[in-house]
Amino acid sequence: MERNLTMIALFAALIAALGLIPKFTLGFGVPITAQTLGVMLCGTVLGAWRGGLAALLFVGLVALGLPLLAGGRGGLGVFASPTVGFLVGFPIGAFVTGFIMDQWRSAPVGLAAGVASVIGGTLVVYIFGIFGMMMTLNKTVVEATLLVQAFIPGDLIKAVLAGFITSGLAKARPASLLSRA
Amino acid sequence: MISLTSPVETRAHHWPAGAKLAALCAATLVLFAVEDPAWQFAFCAGMLLLYALPGRAFLRVGLGRLRMLWPFVALILLWHLLTDDFGVGMVIALRMGTAVGLANLVTMTTKLSDMMGVVRWLAAPLRRFGVRTRSLELAVALVVRFTPVLASKGQMLSLAWRARSRRRAGWRIIMPFTVLAIDDAEHVAEALRARGGL
């Protein structure tokens, strides 16, 4: 019980801290923040329920007015802005990522984590993100997708990295990989 | 930890947080129901007036927070200029600006402890079903405490990397960074159990 609570809280703090460390640029010049990588790791390390709750706790604290999003943003204003969908998608994306990790136990950890992150951390999050843009900006699906498409390759790369990082964690701290415990 | 509450004390700081949130919900519903550009202009002007009332310092900080909306405003106006229904674009941009502005206003005038009070009140029905909401409050405290701790540990990691390599620390430090978070979580869990648990 205590362990579940501290794991959820520390991973919520991890998402926030990953938004605070400066952006890093991938080989071919795509600047990305590590924040969504944190959301994927919640799912791949903690599993469906705990991972989803960790991301939910993070989003809840942003709503309460803490500047935890990359670039020091936060507060209720974020929930009225066009990017609201991504924020709402974080907990659900982390849940789906964790759900796939929980279910697909026959696959190696790294592969399962990578695939789960592509589906949960990218596909699911973008579905919510695009829906949020449609609502706030009054656009069609195609138009909203056009607006966010530049960020999709970066997030796919992050999903692959999440796979590598999770397989590293499985070796470094096997007992703490709750999604496979 | 730094929060987004304005240090400039306004009268709204003393209003009940629940009432402010309810008013925000109502205002947002109205904003999305009205399609007339004249009304949207009036709402937006009213929102700006609210920012101006507590003085210049408050206005400057408040408008600074809305800066992230400019790319979207520009994009929407340009889009609708090209598809020649500029009026619609105007309404969408104004509505977005007003909605974000009002929400931000509530955040700027409400302390974190008051917001937690609203959460506690909303969670009250759950307590009746035997859910222990105290653990939620403990989790919030842990996140607030450990975000700066983890951030500084991340900085140490990246310094350690730079002491050894001429290249920049990329995604490779995220694995050890996550290990640090996991170890902290295990230690805190053990400490909580040693002190009688939840």
The gist of it:
The complex is a heterodimer of chains A (181) and B (198). Chain A is an all-alpha fold.
Q: How would you describe this protein?
A:
The complex is a heterodimer of chains A (181) and B (198). Chain A is mainly α. Chain A is built from 7 helices and 2 strands, in the order αββαααααα. Chain A has a single domain, classed as Orthogonal Bundle (Arp2/3 complex 21 kDa subunit ARPC3), CATH 1.10.1760.20. Chain A has helices at residues 2-20, 35-46, 48-64, 84-103, 109-137, 141-148, 152-172, and strands spanning 24-25, 31-32. In chain A, strands 1-2 form a two-stranded antiparallel ribbon. In chain A, a hairpin with a 5-residue loop joins strand 1 (24-25) and strand 2. In chain A, helix 2 runs antiparallel to helix 3 (48-64) and helix 3 runs antiparallel to helix 4. The radius of gyration of chain A is 16 Å and the shape is globular. Chain A starts with a helix and ends in a 9-residue tail after the last helix. Chain B is mostly helical and 198 residues long. Chain B folds into 2 domains: 11-115, no CATH class; 132-194, no CATH class. Classes of the chains: A mainly alpha (181), B mainly alpha (198). Chains A and B meet through helix 1, helix 2, helix 3 and helix 7 of A and helix 4, helix 5, helix 6, helix 7 and helix 8 of B.
Structural class of chain A: mainly alpha
Gyration radius over CA of chain B: 23 Å
Helix count, DSSP H or I runs of 4 or more residues of chain B:
8
Mean pLDDT of chain A: 89
Oligomer classification: heterodimer
CATH names the topology of chain A as: Arp2/3 complex 21 kDa subunit ARPC3
* Widest beta sheet: strand line-up of chain A: 1-2
Residue share in helix of chain B: over 70%
Helix content of chain A: 55-70%
The number of strands of chain A is: 2
- Number of DSSP strands of chain B? 0
Shape verdict of chain B: extended
Distance between the termini of chain A: 15 Å
- State the name of the first-level CATH class of chain A: Mainly Alpha
Strand content of chain B: under 5%
Count of individual domains of chain B = 2
Order of helices and strands of chain B: HHHHHHHH
Largest interface: A-B, 57 and 69 residues
Outline type of chain A: globular
H/E series of chain A? HEEHHHHHH
